[in-house]
């Protein structure tokens, strides 16, 4: 039997897409996806993380599966002392691409879904992973990169946001793990600071 010590990662529960978005066909990814994935984790959490798109959630046999991105994300969270129950994770694109697609068109089509989520959930703090998310948040900043943006706080739709490397970049270059954990610790501090300020 596998104990929690052998496999300390969890598959965060998926939040179902709202009725109006579950059958979205606003971009070509509608033809590639198995379903719209709205987000995962605690839907009422005030700390919201943004990835570029959902990863695989099932293996070929249809069994629940933890992709490398989410495994590394949880590793970083654990090292930074962030409880998975305090986090909601969503994506720029709510459908998982499996083939090439027109990226600018898909991102533009899907961005109202993220804007709606932010309006509905009103998180206290946002955290983006990777250059694709940084570019989407700062469309006017040419080649916005995490390397330059990390370590500082900005605003997106009036909510504080900061950035770190994409978990897959950290998997490929383990020397980034130290910075990844450092950035996640800064996120936790910011989140706690805002919470205390509201009391
Ligand atoms: S990626 Fe977004 S815009 Fe495109 S079909 Fe999926 S939910 Fe709709």
UniProtKB/TrEMBL annotation:
UniProt domain Uracil-DNA glycosylase-like: residue ranges: 38-185
One Pfam family recorded for the sequence: UDG
InterPro entries hit by this protein: UDG_Type-4/5, Uracil-DNA_glycosylase-like
GO terms of biological process kind: DNA repair
GO molecular-function terms, A-Z: deaminated base DNA N-glycosylase activity
Entry keywords, A to Z: DNA damage, DNA repair, Hydrolase
PANTHER family documented for this protein: TYPE-4 URACIL-DNA GLYCOSYLASE, TYPE-5 URACIL-DNA GLYCOSYLASE
Name of the featured protein: Uracil-DNA glycosylase-like domain-containing protein
Organism of this sequence: Paenibacillus solanacearum
């Amino acid at each position: 039997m596998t104990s929690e010590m052998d496999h300390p990662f969890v598959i965060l529960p998926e939040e179902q897409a709202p009725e109006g978005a579950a059958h979205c066909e606003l971009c070509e990814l509608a033809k590639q996806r198995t379903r719209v994935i709205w987000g995962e984790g605690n839907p009422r959490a005030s700390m919201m993380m943004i990835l570029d798109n959902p990863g695989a959630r099932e293996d070929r046999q249809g069994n629940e599966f933890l992709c490398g991105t989410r495994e590394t994300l949880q590793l970083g969270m654990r090292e930074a002392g962030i409880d998975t129950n305090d986090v909601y994770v969503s994506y720029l694109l709510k459908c998982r691409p499996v083939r090439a697609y027109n990226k600018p068109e898909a991102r533009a089509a899907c961005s109202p879904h993220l804007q709606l989520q932010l309006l509905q959930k009103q998180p206290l703090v946002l955290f983006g992973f990777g250059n694709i998310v940084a570019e989407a948040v700062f469309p006017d900043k040419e080649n916005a990169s995490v390397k330059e943006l990390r370590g500082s706080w900005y605003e997106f739709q009036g909510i504080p946001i900061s950035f770190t490397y994409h978990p897959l970049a950290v998997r490929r270059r383990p020397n980034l793990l130290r910075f990844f954990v450092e950035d996640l610790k800064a996120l936790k501090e910011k989140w706690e600071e805002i919470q205390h300020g509201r009391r």
